[in-house]
Design goal:
alpha/beta, five-stranded parallel β-sheet, 5 strands, 45% helix, 7% strand, globular
Length: 297
């Protein structure tokens, strides 16, 4: 029996992916406003798969729940790494991309059951999730061969500047101790040429991951879609509506208003606050990759 014909199969789940700090969260939250989408909520991620926790997500737009604003008590979509780790312990922090061979039959069954439980409890026909880092496309396709992937791409210089602003970025310890494997000869040369600039190393992380994801998506045809973060924040509704059509979802009353209520805003080109040396190093190290994704200085 193929996975698509299994009784617990969830058809055409959507995964929002990209390098961390690229805007994947805001795109994911906007798409998750569609009422046909089930998702892993902060409640089910924290407290487990009991149907009560899974079903809380459907209360998200109830008047009393909306009154909670952004309170941690309000059900909201999250990455849900705890849930995925229950299916595959190495899902969260693998040192390389995950491939089909990494997903056993039992692992695929667990992932399909996870998605089915959420969709059933929330009364939804589709499922959406978000994760960052490696593409994991081969791995996810093993369980969901009709999955669709939204790759959110942001200017690599902006991503580098954002990574430098968070203490959890692993590049502070050098590429010998981060999760993205050893630098290639080309990348090592670029990093050394910048006098081992942390900004350039953060930019190289972006380059490694966006090229990995684009490469994984190359054979997926219409199941893979790239969305530039800058274009999304310029007109969130236009992007969401285009993605809705691509996902094969019907129009939904009030969806435009709910997307507008998220308050998506353009944070500007904060990378230009980096030192002139770091800006120059990023542009030199990332130039070809930036141009390939449509970014020019």
């Amino acid at each position: 029996m193929t996975s698509a014909s299994r009784p617990d199969a969830v058809h055409r789940p959507v995964f929002v992916i990209g390098c961390g700090r690229s805007g994947t969260t805001v795109v994911f939250h906007a798409l998750a406003e569609h009422p046909d989408f089930a998702w892993i909520s902060n409640w089910s991620n924290r407290f487990g798969a009991a149907s009560a926790w899974l079903a809380l997500a459907r209360l998200r737009h109830a008047p009393g729940v909306r009154a909670l604003g952004e309170s941690a008590l309000r059900p909201r979509p999250v990455e849900g790494y705890r849930a995925w780790i229950d299916c595959f312990p190495g899902f969260n922090r693998p040192t390389r991309d995950l491939f089909a061979r990494d997903c056993s039959d039992s692992c695929a069954d667990r992932m399909r059951a996870l998605v089915s439980r959420h969709a059933s409890a929330q009364g939804c026909s589709r499922f959406i999730a978000k994760y960052t880092g490696w593409s994991r496309v081969g791995f996810m396709d093993r369980a969901f061969p009709d999955a669709r992937y939204v790759h959110v791409v942001r200017d690599g210089r902006a991503v580098a500047a954002s990574l430098l602003g968070v203490g959890f970025w692993e590049g502070w310890r050098g590429p010998e101790q981060w999760r993205w494997g050893p630098l290639s000869e080309e990348h090592e040369s670029l990093w050394k040429a910048s006098d081992r600039s942390f900004a350039v190393l953060a930019g190289l992380q972006w380059k490694i991951l966006v090229e990995n994801i684009r490469g994984a998506g190359a054979g997926l045809g219409d199941r893979y879609r790239e969305v530039r973060y800058e274009e999304f924040v310029a007109d969130p509704w236009a992007s969401v509506d285009a993605l809705r059509l691509w996902c094969g979802l019907p129009s939904a009353a009030g969806l435009a208003d709910r997307v507008a209520s998220l308050g998506v805003r353009d944070v500007g080109e904060k990378w230009r606050a980096l030192s002139d040396e770091d800006q120059r190093g990023l542009s030199e190290a990332l130039g070809p990759a930036l141009r390939s994704f449509g970014y020019v200085d």
